[in-house]
From TrEMBL, chain A:
<feature type="domain" description="TMC">
    <location>
        <begin position="452"/>
        <end position="557"/>
    </location>
</feature>
<feature type="transmembrane region" description="Helical">
    <location>
        <begin position="561"/>
        <end position="583"/>
    </location>
</feature>
<dbReference type="InterPro" id="IPR012496">
    <property type="entry name" value="TMC_dom"/>
</dbReference>
<dbReference type="GO" id="GO:0008381">
    <property type="term" value="F:mechanosensitive monoatomic ion channel activity"/>
</dbReference>
<dbReference type="InterPro" id="IPR038900">
    <property type="entry name" value="TMC"/>
</dbReference>
<keyword id="KW-0812">Transmembrane</keyword>
<feature type="transmembrane region" description="Helical">
    <location>
        <begin position="356"/>
        <end position="379"/>
    </location>
</feature>
<keyword id="KW-0472">Membrane</keyword>
<feature type="compositionally biased region" description="Basic and acidic residues">
    <location>
        <begin position="734"/>
        <end position="748"/>
    </location>
</feature>
TrEMBL record, chain B:
<dbReference type="InterPro" id="IPR018247">
    <property type="entry name" value="EF_Hand_1_Ca_BS"/>
</dbReference>
<dbReference type="InterPro" id="IPR011992">
    <property type="entry name" value="EF-hand-dom_pair"/>
</dbReference>
<dbReference type="InterPro" id="IPR002048">
    <property type="entry name" value="EF_hand_dom"/>
</dbReference>
<dbReference type="GO" id="GO:0005509">
    <property type="term" value="F:calcium ion binding"/>
</dbReference>
<feature type="domain" description="EF-hand">
    <location>
        <begin position="99"/>
        <end position="134"/>
    </location>
</feature>
<keyword id="KW-0479">Metal-binding</keyword>
<keyword id="KW-0106">Calcium</keyword>
<feature type="domain" description="EF-hand">
    <location>
        <begin position="142"/>
        <end position="177"/>
    </location>
</feature>
<dbReference type="InterPro" id="IPR051433">
    <property type="entry name" value="CIBP"/>
</dbReference>
Amino acid sequence: MEDEIEEVEARPPSARRNLTLRNNAARQVAVNFMPSRQLPYNTLRLRRNNSEHNALLEENDSAETDAPDAVDKQADIIVREMEQHKRLMEDDPGAEELRREALRDLPQGLTMKRNVRAKLSASVSLRSKRRPISMWKRMKYRISFTWKRIRDRCRDVVFSFEFWYEPIRQIEGHFGSAVGSYFYFLRWLFVLNLFLSILITTFVIIPQALHDVETSNSAKLSFLDFITGMGGLTDSLLYYGHYHAGDVRAHSSLTYNMPYAYFFTMVCLYLLFFGILCYRTAYSYRVNFIETSGGLSHVFANKVFCGWDFGVVTPEAAKLNANSLYNEFKELLNEQNRNKAPTWWLVRLGQYVCNVCVWVFAAALVAGLAAALWLLLAWKPGPGLTYWPLLVSLALTAALTICPLMFHVLVKLEFYNPRTALYVTLARTWLLDIGILMVLLIYWSQAHADQCWETSFGQEAYRLVLLDSVISLLVLPLFEFTRGLIYKWSNKGSPPEFNLAYNSLTLLYNQAVVWMGGMFAPPLVLGVTIKLVLLFYVKREVARRACQPARKVWRAAQTQTVLYMFVTLSLFTTIFGIATFFLRTSSTSCGPFSGYSYVYEILTEGALHLHERPGLAAALYFMVRPGVIGFLMLFLCVSVYYMRARARAQRSMVRLLRHMLLLQAKDKDFLLTAISNVSNGEWLYSPKPTDEGPDSHTWKYLREVRKPSNSGFHFDASRLSHSLIEGRPRSFAKENRASHYNEKKSEDGDTDSSFSWQGSNNYLNKTDGDRQWP
Amino acid sequence: MGQGKSQFTEEELQDYEDLTYFTKKEVLYAHQKFKALAPEKVGHNKNAKLPMTKILQYPELRVNPFRDRICKVFSSSNDGDCTFEDFLDMMSVFSEMAPKAVKAEHAFRIFDFDGDDMIGVSDLREVIERLCGPELKLSDSEIQQLVQNVLEEADLDDDGALSFAEFEHIIDKSSDFCHAFRIRL
């Protein structure tokens, strides 16, 4: 493998053949009449606008395309190609929609599209056989029309309400699309929370507020209560414990069952958002990871073709973009030029051990923090410290702010590539956040099991959100501003950059607290929504005034997926945690479910009346038996394994097919060259195998891949898998070709355009695979 | 956004909506932006043809290393001067709604400097030189090596140039292309 690469690199660039343009026009004509070009998919795309069609029509000059008749002619060609596609030419709304989409996807100017459309509709109406259509069909068409109109109208409305559009665009122009994507993430979270809070407010908070007006009990509130969330606030709308356990009647005969409302609103919201998040994460994962197969295969080509961020607006940002590309090119080349000696196994072992050590340390840190938190919570202070819980929350928030920074430093000690390093940091921080929140949940549910642990946990969440808001809205921005100012005055050190990873992490933490706390303190969601609005403006100012664009281009597409994944994971953990506690701890002490001994009884007793229906009860109890669940799990595992096996099989099949396609493309290339040679009268009969031009790939592959023993299409599996494992299927052939090319040159240099069918056939029968011939 | 009296009739807007990836509001918004480039000229004739220098005043295009190519590709007269319809076309292709395939198609034409329907060695050199900006210059051998590497990765049929199919293959495998090849209206 190693020397193969070296040989490929050592090959002089001049050895690359340059026959591209030879016979290009004639070739295109031939290519255009190939069956594959007649397939609807290809004709619809109609991509190569000029040369092919001009070659087809034998037009003389492509510079004349702006002349009206040339446009007309080209439109004719396009229409003719479209007409071959039957489904497209039918006279019904479905086909019309298809035509519209096909037109829109046409890579042509508007004038051309309009021209094509006119011709197309004329052709359609000419072909259509006007028949009276049935009632049912007419209705179907009408519905589809209305649906389409509604969809368009919706998009229009969405565009006019797309808030923060211009601000984010400006930021993107300054800082590139990576920082822009942070703000899009922030906006997405905001919309999510806004939706959540609207639903919670209408179905849970307002009914309870109406109930409160009737019973009207007011507690005295001090300022400190607002900070701790305790005291007078304990028995308020803010917390779970306050919500009424019976029917709500507000000046009317209608009743509103509060327990049902609370239960079903929460369950539906959590499940709905879990579904949405799963779908979104899976979609993002599919687009960014699976369809691009990791996106890491074409490093150079990616840098060259996708390097420039077209959204950049300011000259400074453009200059930075150019500089970073320059540096990345240099880095890539250096990396390649450096002798890729395999790292000594001891070094690799050392790196591995180091990584493991740091992981252990990080895990220990998280565990230590959780334990310390438990001790702090359990410690009963003297009467002087009435606000001990507030101090605990303060310490906790401080720890949660500092630890991610520590992880950022920690990961520098390890041996990861930058992308993995970022993911590792994200994972550790997420572990910390979720661990801490879980410890809080467990602590409160145990320590206050007889009182109202739900409210206690709600208070904890309230304090965390409050303190986190203070930190992220005041302390951190102040810190960034001072850093920016110091840099401006002293002009020393590096300018502060917008720390994308850290900022995204705080958003993740924030959302995790919302998932956990929302159940026990419904108005918390509302507070967080407001906080996110403020956060947007604060961050925008920070980015604009105190930060510099990053010097390294940070591609966000895949990181975005990982962020979504963590949000989904925290929601999943939350649902799991809360469900467990609701199943195990009694709910009689307070809250909307105090009429039931367990929360789930609202479903079993309240909604389904299981004690009146023994049959249903028996079925349900059977279904939740450990044996049944275990069996289901086993079944799930088996099906997952089966799917995975299938996916792997398909992947290898895809690889095989791709290779076959490649070979066929080369065959086609070879045949086309042969045809054009024949048509030019250059066909020389020569039995010498050396007359084989370097152009014919087929020949090479006949030798390398197809065994002479098989006349049909056949792969030599061992050869194939060998080259596939290396991931460089072409290097082998290239190396061979290069040597062959040189050999041939030394013999005679004038047979470039000659070739021989017979020769290669003879050769095929003679050799069996190795380089024995001159 | 598109308030006030519009220069377009409802039919024209519907027409644009059918042929581009924009809604009517977005079309009007795009026209505002186009008008801002040359207020008096566009005020008289809504579909006025603006010279390339004027089009390049558009913020995103001003700093783009491929600005002249973009104008040429989208110009209906092939000389870089753009009417509003050309401009709308351009923005539509660069918008978020445009599918990857359409974007790839135009990207290919932008990168194909000599217009031979192949991205050859000279095109790649030009792209790399432009990407690094006017101040920083890679040495000739470095560029050569980069080009070699790109061809190594992408040139499947070994003809020393990238055809559209090969280019599209690269783009298909890139998760960043849609993020990068995008100009928000």
